[in-house]
Design brief:
single chain; 216 residues; alpha+beta
Amino acid sequence: DEHADNYLKKTLTNSFPEYGWLSEETVDSTDRLSKSRIWIVDPIDGTKEFINGTDEFVVSIGLAEEGSPVLGVIYNPVKEEIFYSSKGKGSYMNDLQIFCNEHKPSKEMILLISESERKKGLWNKYSKKFKSLKTMGSVAYKIALTAAGIGDTFATLRPKNEWDVCAADCIVNEAKGKLVTPNGKKRIYNQKNTLIDDGLIAGSHRNINNVINELF
Protein backbone atom coordinates (compact mmCIF):
# COMPACT_ATOMS: atom_id res chain seq x y z
CA ASP A 1 0.00 0.00 0.00
CA GLU A 2 2.65 2.50 1.04
CA HIS A 3 4.94 1.82 -1.92
CA ALA A 4 2.06 2.14 -4.37
CA ASP A 5 0.88 5.31 -2.63
CA ASN A 6 4.33 6.91 -2.73
CA TYR A 7 4.71 6.15 -6.43
CA LEU A 8 1.28 7.52 -7.36
CA LYS A 9 1.63 10.61 -5.20
CA LYS A 10 5.05 11.46 -6.63
CA THR A 11 3.94 10.88 -10.22
CA LEU A 12 0.63 12.73 -10.04
CA THR A 13 1.59 15.65 -7.82
CA ASN A 14 4.80 16.29 -9.77
CA SER A 15 2.75 16.45 -12.96
CA PHE A 16 -0.03 18.54 -11.41
CA PRO A 17 1.46 20.43 -8.45
CA GLU A 18 -1.56 22.72 -8.13
CA TYR A 19 -3.94 19.80 -7.43
CA GLY A 20 -4.78 18.58 -3.94
CA TRP A 21 -4.15 15.05 -2.65
CA LEU A 22 -6.27 12.66 -0.60
CA SER A 23 -5.29 9.04 -0.14
CA GLU A 24 -5.98 6.24 2.32
CA GLU A 25 -2.25 5.83 2.91
CA THR A 26 -1.23 9.50 3.26
CA VAL A 27 -1.60 11.56 6.43
CA ASP A 28 -4.42 13.96 5.62
CA SER A 29 -3.92 17.72 5.44
CA THR A 30 -6.55 20.46 5.47
CA ASP A 31 -4.60 22.17 2.68
CA ARG A 32 -6.55 20.05 0.22
CA LEU A 33 -9.83 21.75 1.17
CA SER A 34 -8.77 24.94 -0.61
CA LYS A 35 -8.03 23.13 -3.90
CA SER A 36 -10.55 23.15 -6.74
CA ARG A 37 -9.10 19.91 -8.14
CA ILE A 38 -7.98 17.00 -6.01
CA TRP A 39 -6.65 13.51 -6.60
CA ILE A 40 -8.56 10.97 -4.49
CA VAL A 41 -6.67 7.69 -4.46
CA ASP A 42 -6.75 4.24 -2.96
CA PRO A 43 -3.42 2.62 -3.94
CA ILE A 44 -4.78 -0.85 -3.16
CA ASP A 45 -8.52 -1.16 -2.71
CA GLY A 46 -9.07 -4.66 -1.37
CA THR A 47 -5.97 -5.06 0.77
CA LYS A 48 -7.30 -8.27 2.37
CA GLU A 49 -7.79 -9.80 -1.05
CA PHE A 50 -4.28 -8.75 -2.07
CA ILE A 51 -2.81 -10.35 1.07
CA ASN A 52 -4.85 -13.52 0.52
CA GLY A 53 -3.65 -13.79 -3.08
CA THR A 54 -7.04 -13.40 -4.78
CA ASP A 55 -7.74 -11.33 -7.89
CA GLU A 56 -10.34 -8.99 -6.36
CA PHE A 57 -8.20 -5.93 -5.59
CA VAL A 58 -7.57 -2.82 -7.68
CA VAL A 59 -5.70 0.46 -7.88
CA SER A 60 -8.23 3.31 -7.78
CA ILE A 61 -7.39 6.84 -8.97
CA GLY A 62 -10.06 9.53 -9.04
CA LEU A 63 -9.98 13.24 -9.76
CA ALA A 64 -12.65 15.56 -8.39
CA GLU A 65 -13.25 19.15 -9.50
CA GLU A 66 -15.30 21.44 -7.28
CA GLY A 67 -16.57 18.34 -5.49
CA SER A 68 -17.63 16.41 -8.59
CA PRO A 69 -15.77 13.34 -9.95
CA VAL A 70 -14.40 14.17 -13.42
CA LEU A 71 -11.90 11.36 -14.03
CA GLY A 72 -11.63 7.76 -12.88
CA VAL A 73 -9.17 4.94 -13.44
CA ILE A 74 -9.51 1.51 -11.82
CA TYR A 75 -6.94 -1.17 -12.60
CA ASN A 76 -7.00 -4.85 -11.70
CA PRO A 77 -3.38 -5.95 -12.29
CA VAL A 78 -4.09 -9.69 -11.92
CA LYS A 79 -6.87 -9.80 -14.51
CA GLU A 80 -5.31 -7.00 -16.54
CA GLU A 81 -8.61 -5.15 -16.56
CA ILE A 82 -8.59 -1.36 -16.70
CA PHE A 83 -11.72 0.74 -16.35
CA TYR A 84 -11.49 4.43 -17.12
CA SER A 85 -13.62 7.49 -17.80
CA SER A 86 -13.58 11.25 -17.94
CA LYS A 87 -16.56 13.55 -17.66
CA GLY A 88 -18.59 13.71 -20.83
CA LYS A 89 -16.48 11.14 -22.69
CA GLY A 90 -17.97 7.79 -21.68
CA SER A 91 -16.63 4.83 -19.71
CA TYR A 92 -14.43 2.04 -21.01
CA MET A 93 -13.11 -1.37 -20.00
CA ASN A 94 -9.96 -2.27 -21.91
CA ASP A 95 -10.97 0.18 -24.67
CA LEU A 96 -14.50 -1.22 -25.06
CA GLN A 97 -17.22 1.26 -24.11
CA ILE A 98 -19.36 0.03 -21.23
CA PHE A 99 -22.84 0.76 -19.91
CA CYS A 100 -24.86 -0.18 -16.84
CA ASN A 101 -27.55 -2.79 -17.31
CA GLU A 102 -31.00 -1.42 -17.96
CA HIS A 103 -34.00 -1.97 -15.72
CA LYS A 104 -34.53 -5.38 -14.16
CA PRO A 105 -37.05 -6.48 -11.54
CA SER A 106 -35.42 -7.14 -8.17
CA LYS A 107 -36.09 -10.89 -8.43
CA GLU A 108 -33.97 -10.99 -11.63
CA MET A 109 -31.16 -8.81 -10.34
CA ILE A 110 -27.56 -9.78 -9.50
CA LEU A 111 -26.49 -7.53 -6.64
CA LEU A 112 -22.76 -7.09 -5.96
CA ILE A 113 -22.08 -6.86 -2.22
CA SER A 114 -19.23 -7.12 0.27
CA GLU A 115 -18.11 -10.53 1.52
CA SER A 116 -17.45 -9.03 4.96
CA GLU A 117 -21.00 -7.62 5.13
CA ARG A 118 -22.45 -10.99 4.25
CA LYS A 119 -20.33 -12.77 6.88
CA LYS A 120 -21.67 -10.34 9.48
CA GLY A 121 -25.22 -11.31 8.54
CA LEU A 122 -26.16 -7.86 7.26
CA TRP A 123 -27.75 -9.31 4.12
CA ASN A 124 -29.58 -12.27 5.63
CA LYS A 125 -33.03 -10.69 5.51
CA TYR A 126 -32.57 -9.54 1.92
CA SER A 127 -31.30 -12.75 0.32
CA LYS A 128 -34.69 -13.76 -1.14
CA LYS A 129 -35.40 -10.34 -2.60
CA PHE A 130 -32.85 -10.71 -5.41
CA LYS A 131 -31.81 -13.36 -7.91
CA SER A 132 -28.30 -13.43 -6.47
CA LEU A 133 -26.16 -11.68 -3.88
CA LYS A 134 -22.69 -11.99 -5.36
CA THR A 135 -19.84 -11.24 -2.97
CA MET A 136 -16.35 -9.99 -3.75
CA GLY A 137 -13.64 -7.78 -2.33
CA SER A 138 -12.81 -4.30 -3.57
CA VAL A 139 -15.59 -1.71 -3.42
CA ALA A 140 -14.21 0.17 -6.42
CA TYR A 141 -14.03 -3.07 -8.41
CA LYS A 142 -17.65 -3.96 -7.64
CA ILE A 143 -18.84 -0.56 -8.86
CA ALA A 144 -16.68 -0.81 -12.00
CA LEU A 145 -18.16 -4.23 -12.77
CA THR A 146 -21.62 -2.75 -12.30
CA ALA A 147 -20.73 0.02 -14.75
CA ALA A 148 -19.67 -2.70 -17.21
CA GLY A 149 -22.97 -4.57 -16.84
CA ILE A 150 -21.30 -7.60 -15.24
CA GLY A 151 -23.39 -6.97 -12.13
CA ASP A 152 -26.79 -5.31 -12.19
CA THR A 153 -26.37 -3.14 -9.10
CA PHE A 154 -23.84 -2.52 -6.32
CA ALA A 155 -24.89 -1.87 -2.75
CA THR A 156 -23.16 -1.47 0.60
CA LEU A 157 -24.78 -1.10 4.00
CA ARG A 158 -21.60 0.06 5.72
CA PRO A 159 -19.70 3.38 5.71
CA LYS A 160 -17.13 3.96 2.99
CA ASN A 161 -14.48 6.61 2.42
CA GLU A 162 -14.12 9.00 -0.49
CA TRP A 163 -11.03 7.18 -1.74
CA ASP A 164 -13.03 3.94 -1.97
CA VAL A 165 -15.48 5.31 -4.52
CA CYS A 166 -14.41 8.57 -6.22
CA ALA A 167 -12.91 6.95 -9.34
CA ALA A 168 -15.75 4.44 -9.55
CA ASP A 169 -18.29 7.26 -9.20
CA CYS A 170 -17.03 8.88 -12.40
CA ILE A 171 -16.95 5.54 -14.22
CA VAL A 172 -20.52 4.58 -13.33
CA ASN A 173 -21.80 8.09 -14.14
CA GLU A 174 -20.31 7.91 -17.62
CA ALA A 175 -21.76 4.40 -18.07
CA LYS A 176 -25.30 5.87 -17.88
CA GLY A 177 -25.69 5.11 -14.19
CA LYS A 178 -25.07 6.80 -10.88
CA LEU A 179 -23.75 6.31 -7.35
CA VAL A 180 -25.97 7.61 -4.56
CA THR A 181 -26.79 7.26 -0.89
CA PRO A 182 -30.07 5.53 0.08
CA ASN A 183 -31.83 8.91 0.08
CA GLY A 184 -30.79 9.48 -3.53
CA LYS A 185 -28.06 12.05 -2.88
CA LYS A 186 -24.75 12.14 -4.72
CA ARG A 187 -21.51 12.63 -2.82
CA ILE A 188 -19.78 16.01 -2.94
CA TYR A 189 -16.09 15.12 -2.70
CA ASN A 190 -13.22 16.75 -0.84
CA GLN A 191 -15.11 17.09 2.43
CA LYS A 192 -13.34 17.61 5.74
CA ASN A 193 -14.93 14.37 6.93
CA THR A 194 -14.15 11.86 4.19
CA LEU A 195 -16.44 9.14 5.56
CA ILE A 196 -19.69 8.38 3.71
CA ASP A 197 -21.72 6.76 6.45
CA ASP A 198 -25.20 6.34 4.90
CA GLY A 199 -24.48 3.37 2.64
CA LEU A 200 -24.18 3.55 -1.16
CA ILE A 201 -25.90 2.12 -4.23
CA ALA A 202 -24.69 2.16 -7.85
CA GLY A 203 -26.28 1.15 -11.14
CA SER A 204 -28.83 2.38 -13.64
CA HIS A 205 -31.37 4.86 -12.30
CA ARG A 206 -34.32 2.44 -12.33
CA ASN A 207 -32.33 -0.45 -10.85
CA ILE A 208 -31.18 1.80 -8.02
CA ASN A 209 -34.77 2.75 -7.26
CA ASN A 210 -35.73 -0.93 -7.13
CA VAL A 211 -32.91 -1.70 -4.70
CA ILE A 212 -33.73 1.26 -2.47
CA ASN A 213 -37.35 0.10 -2.27
CA GLU A 214 -36.24 -3.40 -1.24
CA LEU A 215 -33.58 -2.38 1.29
CA PHE A 216 -34.80 0.81 2.90
